[in-house]
Design goal:
Elements: H1 2-33, H2 37-50, H3 55-68, H4 71-84, H5 89-101, H6 105-118, H7 124-135, H8 139-153, H9 157-169, H10 173-186, H11 192-203, H12 207-220, H13 225-237, H14 241-253, H15 260-271, H16 276-289, H17 294-306, H18 310-323, H19 328-340, H20 344-357, H21 361-373, H22 377-389, H23 394-404
Helix pairs in contact: 1-2, 2-3, 3-4, 4-5, 5-6, 6-7, 7-8, 8-9, 9-10, 9-11, 10-11, 11-12, 11-13, 12-13, 13-14, 14-15, 15-16, 16-17, 17-18, 18-19, 19-20, 19-21, 20-21, 21-22, 22-23
Amino acid sequence: MKKILAIVLIILPILLAAQSKNALYNEGLTHFKAGNYKIAKDRFAEVLEMDQYFYEALFYSGRCDYHLGNFEQSITAFSSVVEQQDDFYPAWYFRGKVYHKLEQYDKALQDYNRAAEINPDLAIVYIEKARIYDIRGNREKALLNYTKNEELAGGSYELYYNRAVLLTNMGKYQQALNDALKAIDMQPENPEPFVLRSRIFRKQMKFGKAEREIENLLNINSQSEAAYEERADLYFVQGKFQKALADYEMLTGKFGRRDILFEYRMGVCYANTENEMRARRAFTRVISLEPDYADAYAQRAFIYLSMDREAQAKQDLRKALLKDPNNPTALRLMGKLQLGDHQYGKALESLSKSLEQEHNGKAYALRAKCKFYLKDYDGACEDAKLAIMFGYDKKDGQLDMSQYCR
């Protein structure tokens, strides 16, 4: 009996310690799953004080450090785990994620490859590898890794959306559209694949389809801020200023967005819908927020010209060109003023510099007139043709051609 009691007295503390250790570990796991990483880390630290070789506790301690932003401590923990248990692939995978986060891509790939070597069915590792190859511009390898993930795990939103982005960048638009549609089927509430499909249609100059894609998104989620932002931009680039303005006002009003680009574009919309006062106020607000915004000065100059306030227009154009000597709008408007002042040489120089930055029908029409006055009739005729090609009023352009082309 005494021998049995002695054995119990020896074994009992060991059993109690094991129970305490496991209880602390399980408590740590509970906090980890709840996102209480600081508390969880403290529990795992208590476990490790009792047993420094409890590698699962060390692994989760490293994961806590990752979520807490303690990346170097996280690497140290995962490194200790793989030293103790070389075939514990989760530690290789998560150490790879830390290196990935730190943009140490060679080390990340080495760890991802080791994790896949131990567990060839670890599908998620191929998505991570694909992302690195994409960042490095090796798109074919990225595509192969996304496809490997699909083979192992079947479809997932993350796979289809990321691969759709990659395929878009590779110019494989139909495949990208298909993958984005699969992503929508899996998460119809997510705006990203709708926006991506809309942008692909824009690249293909299919603006009607691009608009319908955003309307589909709004039918699912009428409160999608991303949808209004994308549609506003789509309307703006098409010159549908009244519709763009409605969406920008929604973004700044209902969603409370305070964005200099939105404010600037609203000014452009007001200017093109004959609301000069609101346009001027919008550009003035932009300038007050960003004094070096050359385009805002140029656009306000355009408003001043339409209001017959030439002196103020010239002042704004000088400021615009001081901020950006190559601003195409400021150069075009300055050329127009110089042409009106019969400074044909200066006007020709300003308009030519403007056209070096962007093709613009009005700038070509102005330069054609300039060349005509300078008796460069062939040049005037050629510019009149280019003016029509780049959006200048066809009737006015043909009238110019009848005058210049001899």
